[in-house]
Amino acid sequence: MGYEKTFIASDEARSGAPLVRADGVGQDIGADRACVSAAAGAGRFIALIESRTFVRECIRRSLQSAFALPVVTYSTVAELEHRLGDASPELAMLSLMDASAGGCANALKALSDLVPSNSIVVLGLTDDEELAGIAVRNGARGYIPCTMGFEIAVEALRVVLAGGAYAPIDSLLARGGPKPETPRVSSPTSLITRREQTVVRAIQQGKSNKVIAHEMNLCESTVKVHVRNIMKKLRAKNRTEVAIKAQAAWSPQLA
Fold first, then answer.
1. Is residue 234 predicted with pLDDT exceeding 80?
2. Euclidean distance between CA atoms 121 and 76, whole angstroms
3. Which of 126, 148, 143 is nearest to 62 (CA)?
4. Helices 194-204 and 209-216, interaxial angle, to 10°?
5. Structural domain tally of the chain?
6. Is the pTM for the entire model greater than 0.70?
7. What are the φ/ψ torsions at residue 120 (nearest 5 degrees)?
8. Does one domain contain both 93 and 132?
C-alpha cells in the first residue's frame, strides 16, 4: 500500500533527515535550518518562541507566507538565549497561550534581557485584558490574541516592526483605556459610535459582514452601511486599515 513512505521514525526527525511524503517528494529540513541560521547570524529575522512543536510550525509557516524576513523558531526563551549569539531579531513573538500570570511576567523579563523590548509581541489564547496588561507593563509593544483574524494580526506585527504598538481594543478598554463613546480617530470631530465600535471589534477578529449581522441581530445591508461609515471616518481603504487605524486611536498609552 505504500504507507511506509508516509512516516519517518522519531530519531530520523530529530536528526534533521529529509521528510518523505506519500507522493515521494522529499523536504530537506536541514537545508531549511541552514538558511534560517544564516539569516539569524545576519541579524535580520523574526524570532518565534512557542513550546509546542506542531503549533510552533503552523505559526511559523503562516507568518513566513506574509513576511520576507525569515521566521526562526525556538521552543523556549532559554533556547533563544543559547542560539542567539550576537544577533538580535527584528521582532520577537512570544507565545504565552498557556502561561500563568506569573509565568508571563517571568518569561517577558527573561526575553527583555535578550532582545530590545520594543521588538517584543505576545501571542495570547484569548482577548485577555490581564495578560495584555502584563505584556504592556513588562515592555512588550504588542499583544495579539488567537481570536484575531490572520490578516489583522499580520498588519499588527507590521505596525510593531515599524516602531509602533498594538493591543486589542477590548483589552485596552478593560484596563481603563478610552471609553467607546468618544474615541478620537482621524480628526477631533470624527467619532466612532458604540455600535460602530462593536463592528470594528468584529472586523479585527476577521469576521465577515454576514457573521457580524448575525451576531448583532442586524440586516447584512445595515452592517455594510456601518462599515462604509467607519471607513469614511477613519479614511481607510479596506477592512484591514479599519482595524489598524481604529486600534491606533484607542491605544495612545502604548505609544
1. yes
2. 15
3. 148
4. 130
5. 2
6. no
7. -95, 130
8. yes
